[in-house]
Amino acid sequence: MKFDLERLYHLLPAIHRIRDAELGLQIQQETGAVAPDYNDDVYGPLRALIAIIADEVGILEENLDQLYDDLFIETCAEWVVPYIGELVGYRSLIEIPNTSFSQRAEVANTIKYRRQKGTLHVLEQLARDTTQLDSNIVEYFQLLATTQYMNHLRPQNIAIPRINNNPLAAEGNKDWQILELVNTPFDQMPKTADVRSIVSNRGKYNIPNIGIYLWRIKAYPLTKAPVHKIDDNRYTFNVLGIDTQLYNRPTSEQTATQIAKRMNVAMPISRRELYEDLEVFYGKDKSIFLELDGQEVLNDNNTSLEDLICVCNLSDDPDNSNQWINMPSQKIAIDPVLGRIALPPNLQPPPPDRTLYVTYHYGFSADIGGGEYERADSFELQAENHTVIEVPTNAPDIQNAINQLPAEGGIIEITDNEIYEENLVINIDTDEKIEIRASNGKRPLLKPSNSITINGAERSGLVLNGLMIDGKIETDDLTTLKINHCTLVPSANENILINTQTAVEINKSIIGIIKVTEASDVTITDSILDAIDPSVAVYASPVGEGFGARLSIENSTVIGRVYTRLMNLASNTIFIAEEDATPTKDFLIEAQRIQEGCVRFSFFPEKSKLPRPFRCQPALSGFEKRVYPLFTSLKYGDAGYCQLSQYCAKEITEGADDGAEMGVFHQEYYTFKYANLRTRLNEYLRFGMEVGIFYAS
What we know:
Layout: H1 5-9, H2 14-31, H3 45-69, H4 81-87, H5 104-108, H6 110-115, H7 120-131, E1 134-139, H8 176-180, E2 209-215, E3 218-226, E4 228-229, E5 234-236, H9 271-276, H10 278-281, E6 289-292, E7 295-296, H11 305-308, E8 309-311, E9 316-317, E10 320-324, E11 332-335, E12 340-342, E13 356-364, E14 388-391, H12 398-404, E15 409-414, E16 419-420, E17 425-427, E18 433-438, E19 445-446, E20 452-455, E21 461-465, E22 468-469, E23 473-476, E24 480-484, E25 487-488, E26 494-498, E27 503-507, E28 510-511, E29 513-516, E30 521-525, E31 528-530, E32 537-540, E33 550-554, E34 557-559, E35 561-571, E36 574-576, E37 589-593, E38 599-600, E39 608-609, E40 613-614, H13 624-627, H14 650-653, H15 670-684, E41 690-695
Parallel strand pairs: 2-41, 8-11, 14-15, 15-18, 16-19, 17-20, 18-21, 19-22, 20-23, 21-24, 22-25, 23-26, 24-27, 26-29, 27-30, 28-31, 29-32, 30-33, 31-34, 32-35, 33-35, 34-36, 35-37, 35-38, 37-39, 38-40
Antiparallel strand pairs: 1-2, 3-13, 4-5, 5-12, 6-7, 6-13, 9-10, 11-12
Helix pairs in contact: 7-15
């Protein structure tokens, strides 16, 4: 029963309600004030008192309802989870701050896990519950090459698989899956025994050993996106025209006790896999899909996929760099390793309005830089309070939508993944705020041939959210510029040029070179600054390599030299910089004023001039090479872009202020997840078994 205002008020005797209405009417006549009314009843002083009581009763009712919900792990508040866990003897793990990580699932399943203690699927599920990463478990004794015992034959244990690699041969290669997955977590090739310790990640193949693999790279979808056209027959999946390895869309296991297989985790798609299992990877709601001239490229009653699509190596021709090898004659060719598409010549000449759209998955480590991931919480302006103009629904392009905005500004929301080739000119008046954003679940490309020019006034502001921008942003007299979840494609030219005093905030974005006048303030969090070449200045003033604006940077990775007037704060950040062929500066990372500012828990080259560092690396002179950060890749577009290598020094992987890793993926807390998993495994492993934890990506 809900005791709201009306229910409580009408529990009073009618004589009191009549008298209260008379008093309310008398007060209105004497003061001239118009009091609010409910159901045409005058709001008297007694009714006002009951309204306050009703609010408090509502709070109590909500609290009582929550107390009942807190009795159950499925519905309890997050702070109650450890207390319920204590009732079943659950050992709490390291708390991971500022994330959606919860121990609720593991607490809920603790009793079930203990009943099945030591089984493979429980160990694998524990890995997922404690790390929130895809996982796979391997029993290495199953992979030992041994002589066969006639009373216990193991026909799957084939020490020497057939290596006939011709898929068109009469017999074919019966073991192509085994050969394709060599040196992956799903490697089934028998090995000789290795007696080194698996706990220290040195040895694997031994009788008591179990391996748990964790996938740091996730598969991110891009749905119905335009391709990059090279000529009438050659295209790339990546709209920027760069080679991109395609990933599979992970599927869920069919049963609760199934161990993860290759299709249950995010892995690169090889040419052979796509060739052999085309219908598994290609199709609507699958890993890859094409739409040509408005028609879905799918098989029908008269054709099969093999009649429409072929899989081949579309690498550059060594004799002619402007051509690809293995160009098709009849079918559409796909190269999943390079992310390339080739159309047959019989489709020529193409109509003027020929279109090719693709749906595919690419690999990356975290939700930054824009994409079809959840980012609605990062929207600055709310639709219910501001004018919203959708592109292309309400306006054909972005410039047209900007021109339609009222004087107070509003929201430009792009609702597709199209390419917008516009040299935008954005004029923002005094007290006007504009947010240009991609809809949640979209990632359009802005590709100006010149630049995006922003002219501001006092208290003017612009927010960019969820966009990929292949070009330059130039501002003048703008008060605030916020860039959230965007990619300003790194290049040899500056991505951002700030000519006047502006407060710049960059969050969860990938940015190239920034040139900022020293009168501004720049704040960067959870982002990548990449000059492509670490010997090039990635942060400086608009004139040469002078000192740029005051800089505060946290949880970020910087590739290139940095010159700032004041390093206001540098925390949990990795600075990678090198000297160029003809050095013009004495330092690679330099702050003009070193009496102020704070540099803490970061890595920077020894040739740096900064405020006195606190617990930074290298900690001692001459130690730079030993602790120098190692990355999976520093090439933009790679799946492991700016991801710390598993061979990186612990001073970097555990060197942040909270014990997590330095750099842009600090908020992923891989160190904490690894420690939590190791703690939990000690409880669920069988006696005599040893386990090693490896990063599969």
